[in-house]
Design goal:
The chain has about 425 residues and is of the alpha/beta class. It folds into 2 domains: about 140 residues, Aspartate Aminotransferase, domain 1 (Alpha-Beta Complex); about 260 residues, Type I PLP-dependent aspartate aminotransferase-like (Major domain) (Aspartate Aminotransferase, domain 2, 3-Layer(aba) Sandwich). The protein has 14 helices and 15 strands. It has a 7-stranded mixed beta sheet with strand order 4-10-9-8-7-5-6, with helices on both faces. Strands 1-2-3-13 form a 4-stranded mixed beta sheet. Strand 2 and strand 3 form a beta hairpin. Helix 3 runs antiparallel to helix 11, helix 8 runs parallel beside helix 9 and helix 12 packs parallel to helix 14. The longest helix is centred in the C-terminal third of the chain and has 17 residues. The radius of gyration is 21 Å and the shape is globular. The mean pLDDT is about 95. The chain binds pyridoxal-5'-phosphate (PLP). The site of pyridoxal-5'-phosphate has 15 residues, from helix 5.
């Protein structure tokens, strides 16, 4: 194959990747990594929007590695903050002896988040943040049922699975996951009007007297990058208020500038009762949080030495330092605003792809876009073809028929355009 990128040196995957594939196949649960002759590559290093594999091939990353590397891979300020913190204190004592850096992060989050969302449970992964939010809703309302959306992805731990909208993740574990959630259709702005979407919500939710909370992604990410009609989130807010239901916004994917706003709910001026954040929060270091308004969080019993909800790594000092540095980088580079501006260019370029027969829909906002193709097989083919030409892409959507495009917010415009040209050619 002719290599478009000088940076791609030979066949993908290269010889070192092929050797490592064999080792991985032998020692990792076969459920984890899909291995084939064309996919994946073993990453060795990454900087900004460039990833280098173990064979020395360089790729443009259009995924931010699941939406994490918004400030760029190995952002130097984040690396410096982690290094400094690691030299001073790598690990603290969760809920027993706190640290200054944790306290500073909690205060910073309270100033950053809108509308008095100021009391936090820190955690490590997105799923854990969702679990903390669900537990908080149960504690605050003394109810234990939820409203969630079809296509929703809130993580794969058992608690998070109770509000999953993707059946294949739940089905094998059905016996462990309580059937307490009412699933609603997530309204796709390209297919349903606001009026129909709100009527659908009222109809499908039914009797809400036992419902603790409604959990919603303001823009469904793994579900295929689906945007609700403008005004829908504000309607959900009113819907919850009228019924005494808490509103949980899962901003794990959409938060920290991804959609052109600090948080996607900001676009509609909506303030949830609880927000879940993670992914980009630590710039690559695993840290997440559930943040609530004080009247809700303060229903938890006061700790008298034994927390009802905590974990060994809660508020890990390196994670807190990484998150503080990441927030500073987002601010310094005006990255939410950059996501909006560059996102306009990205969106208009992607919309041109609708001219191709195999493109069904293009949707998104800021630096979070999905290109829906005719089939998952077609999306799979494109992902592999562009990889061979130096571009890393992900598939999304319950069926896998969507190309998900979520580049680092710091990506050079010319690099982005180059990567989009390659996608266009492979379509
Ligand atoms: C919206 C949303 N919530 C929760 C999660 C789960 O996060 P994690 O994989 O860190 O557990 C994800 C992960 O993709 C996500 O996109």
């Amino acid at each position: 194959m002719k290599n478009e990128f000088e940076a791609v040196r030979g066949a993908i995957p290269g010889p070192r990747t092929a050797a490592l594939q064999e080792q991985l196949a032998q020692y990792e649960s076969q459920n984890v990594t899909f291995l084939s002759d064309e996919f994946p590559v073993f990453w060795e290093s990454a900087s900004g929007s460039t990833v280098t594999d173990v064979d020395g091939n360089r790729f443009i990353d259009l995924t931010s590695a699941f939406g994490v590397a918004s400030v760029g891979h190995s952002n130097p300020s984040v690396v410096a903050a982690i290094t400094l913190q690691a030299n001073a204190l790598m690990h603290g004592m969760g809920d027993v002896h706190p640290t200054e850096v944790r306290s500073r992060l909690l205060e910073r989050l309270a100033r950053l988040l809108p509308g008095g969302l100021s009391k936090t449970f820190l955690a490590t992964t997105g799923s854990e943040a969702v679990e903390a939010a669900l537990k908080t809703a149960v504690i605050a309302t003394a109810k234990h049922r939820f409203l969630a959306y079809r296509g929703a992805y809130h993580g794969l731990s058992l608690g998070a699975l109770t509000v999953s909208g993707i059946e294949k993740f739940v089905e094998p574990f059905r016996g462990l996951v309580p059937h307490e959630t009412t699933l609603l259709d997530y309204p796709d702005a390209q297919r349903i009007t606001l009026g129909d979407a709100t009527a659908q919500l009222e109809r499908q939710a039914g009797d809400c007297s036992e419902i603790a909370a409604l959990i919603i992604e303001p823009l469904q990410g793994r579900g295929g990058c689906i945007l609700p009609p403008k005004g829908y989130l504000a309607h959900v807010r009113r819907f919850c208020d009228e019924r005494g239901i808490l509103m949980i916004a899962d901003e794990i994917y959409t938060g920290f500038g991804r959609t052109g706003y600090w948080f996607a709910c900001d676009a509609e001026g909506v303030i949830p009762d609880i927000v879940c954040i993670g992914k980009a929060m630590g710039g690559g270091f695993p840290i997440s949080a559930a943040v609530a308004r004080p009247p809700i969080m303060d229903v938890w019993p006061l700790s008298t030495g034994e927390a009802l909800h905590t974990s060994t790594y809660l508020g890990n000092p390196m994670g807190c330092a990484a998150a503080l540095a990441t927030i500073e980088e987002l601010e310094r580079g005006h990255l939410p605003q950059r996501a909006r501006e560059l996102g306009d260019l990205l969106g208009s370029r992607l919309e041109r792809l609708l001219a191709h027969d195999n493109v069904v829909a293009v949707r998104g906002r800021g630096m979070m876009w999905g290109v829906q193709l005719r089939s998952a097989a077609e999306a799979d083919r494109v992902v592999k073809r562009v990889l061979a030409r130096g571009v890393i892409l992900l598939q999304a959507g319950p069926a896998g028929d969507v190309l998900s495009i979520t580049p680092p917010l710091v990506i050079d415009e010319s690099v982005l355009i180059r990567a989009l040209d390659i996608i266009k050619e492979e379509l």
